[in-house]
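User: Fold this; tokens only.

Assistant: Input:
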Amino acid sequence: MSKIISILGSTGSVGTQTLDVISNMDNIKVHGLTTNTNIDLLEDQIITFKPKKVAVMDKKKAKELRCRLKDSDIRVEVLSGLDGLTAIASLSEVDTVVTSVVGMIGLIPTIKAIEKGKDIALANKETLVTAGEIVMDKAKEYGVSIYPVDSEHSAIFQCLRGNEDQPIDRIILTASGGPFRLSSKEDLYNVTVEDALKHPNWDMGQKISIDSATMMNKGLEVIEAKWLFDLELNQIDVMVHPQSIIHSMVEYKDANIMAQLGVADMRGPIQYALNYPDRKASNIERVDFTKYNSLTFEEPDFNKFPCLKYAYEAMEIGGSMPAVLNAANEIAVEAFLNRKISFMDIPKLIHDTMEAHISINKPTLNQILECDKWAREFSRKKVDLWQ
């Protein structure tokens, strides 16, 4: 039986790898694709995968794409803006939506997709970081499944399979440690954008690469895991595992630990999410244990990487604080990439924004959006003051 999907963020790292997975399978059809501004790649994807509708967040780029396609024999509707993104997430024929956009922008389309009864292959951390309780309650209300695409959460999902009713002590999210695992804290004050983008194991987009370098990426995953697997914060540990072969682990009450292993290749968790509960053959590289004959583990350094500590603190406070943490981080990463602030200003900006926010307990969706807006404005003003 064929599965029909939409991909939100099809020109990004996860989106392009999702299409790579689909190109080697005959049981998945693409009806919707979206991009922010990359209409060149989107046009190529339209030609190859022949979706029914596409959306471009940038309205000028959307208009340009319509003009390009006007005189061709390609028949596809080009939508624009957040409304366009939401429409692609809600297409009536679609049964699964891959949410691989980066940032808070993925929240509303994901909720709308859930309300339309679509299963979600989730690669957008911010959706659960900012509104985890609301999203998971919606999924239960509308009877849809959320399949994690992040390698760590996919690993936990796989380790729980067949043991869903068994009590667990904790999950262990593994982290590569990023490009600065062996650097001193003093070294981090001189980090350049180019340094921070050089991830040792994974091929990712710019924002996620910077998050990995600060270890905020792991902090967001901690919050995401809390909601995905209905855990208490004290049941979620982080362990640095530089080889990135063990993608995460589950420790059960009887002290036995289940781990999921594989090479560092996002196509694995993508394919698992799209085909669940089946496992399909793939051309992904197999682990050669003669090359990886030493797997090592270290505790994370919260002093050197305070972003991870702030994520734990935000989740402990709860309410609207994780949304504020996320918004401040998005502005901080953007400012760093634009060379407006230093690498070590990223955690400082997040800390200052969290300090200025009075958390709202059990916020509504509108309150979360308002807190997100406030945090972005506060953070941008801080960046301007620092320049």
